[in-house]
Amino acid sequence: MPTEVELKLSAAPGAFAAVRRHRALIEANAGRARSTSIVSRYYDTPTSELFERGVALRLRRRGASWLQTVKGSGDAAAGMHRRTEYEWPLLRPRLDPGKLAETPWATLFADTSARLAPVFTTEITRTERALKFADGTRATLSFDRGAVRAGRKRSPLCEIEIELVEGDARRLYDLALALCADIPLTLAHASKAERGYALARSRPARPVRAGKVALSLDVAAPHALAAIAIDCLAQIGGNAEVLRDGRDGEFLHQLRVGVRRMRSLLKLAAGAPGAAEAASLDSGLAALGEVFGPARDWDVFASGTLAAVAPHLHDKELRAFGRLRLRAARKRRLLRLEAQSEAGSQRFSCLLLALGRFCAGLELAAPDPAATVLARASLDRSERRLRKRGKRLRQADAAGRHRVRVAAKKLRYAAEFFAPLFRRAGANDYIDALSALQGTLGNLNDMAAAARLLDELMAPVRNDAELSHAAGIVRGWTASMSARELERLPKSWRQFAKTKRFWT
Predict the structure, then answer these.
(1) Whether pLDDT at 408 is above 90
(2) Whole-number average pLDDT of the chain
(3) Under a CB-based contact definition with an 8 Å cutoff, are residues 283 and 266 in contact?
(4) More confident residue, 424 or 420
(5) CATH number of the domain that 376 lies in?
(6) Contacts of 69 by beta carbon, 8 Å cutoff, 6+ apart
(7) What residue numbers bound the domain in which 388 lies?
(8) How far is C-alpha 400 from the geometric centre of its chain's CA atoms?
(9) Is residue 304 domain-resident?
(10) What pLDDT sits at residue 106?
């Protein structure tokens, strides 16, 4: 099927001039820039049946010409968007059902054609420039500036698109990396269609969670790693795009999960082509963790732990506890702002682009060894590590339990990554048992983190009996919760220990 491959960057209007003058763009320039006015009208049913199936349908006026376009679902990771695309020139601005019947969604269009109506419109001025790279790869760079409109609602649009015409997609990453190193650009995860639906239907953004990556049984290890890495990057980029706008902590949480999944995957890629590059990228992700990790810890403490304590207090304790919560909220807000700033930073954009380029290299790597070989070795190694650390779980302190938790998390990620390669029963049971163990250990870790953060919060406090009393209440509550989870821990471990492995 015809596939559109393009890398999308968001920019402030003033950045366009800097991009035009950038040496990397001048070196790849293969023609004069041309500007044109483009108006695109998107169609769907009142209940968004096309959108729910991952299909976008539009009529586009480009200058004096009309085009009908259908795009299918694809993936968006590290700014790179890949979607199935069908496009036809039209003589008049009216949907042509006959053309729609030629697509893989012919049945969907036949069922919905009578109810299709305009939903939103994009109006942009596009300036295009043809590019040619040293290896012969050809692409088109577009500056898009305009707006998305839905009724009286309007959202500004300012993007840079680098669309692959033919050749190696890594050249798009090379150009974007050169631009992002010098110019404040961010990666665009949402497409114009997704932005239009969000505006027209008032759809709230949803956190991007880990997906289930479909892997064929005979897939090669580098290609499997690439597919999984793209899902990790989609989770990181999708949540970062919303976090930059200051949304709630679940986006921060899912962003942090995506970073951890990506780090686990890079460890699995140690024997794949580009192992040295993988190690360097892992170091970059570890640096991100130093920003996102504390922000998430304080988010859990302020909005989770302290919120759970509040209903158990007497009226006379509420004033002091309110003061404590206010101090925690201030700390959380400060670290949240740092996380939001990091998610919009040039360092963050460049790291995601470098990760995307690494994935593109894996997709082009030789098909050897088989992914099942890598999967069995990785799962065996991860399980041995967890069982070794779990032998002394009953006697372990908080640091020891944390090490077991980390091992459980890495094994769970590997199990989720590779489960599609093994078509036998048991994978879900194994992952469920791991999740339950990880959940108990996670609750214990949250209580240990709460005690540490409480100490940090109270360190500057001197001679404040009221605040110290409130802190004491929290310490007592966390100790009680820890005792409860410690009672559950042996059962969680036994349940995991007796669960059969699904890969042997």
Answers:
(1) yes
(2) 95
(3) no
(4) 420
(5) 1.40.20.10
(6) 56, 57, 58, 59, 60, 85, 86, 87, 88
(7) 250-497
(8) 30
(9) yes
(10) 97
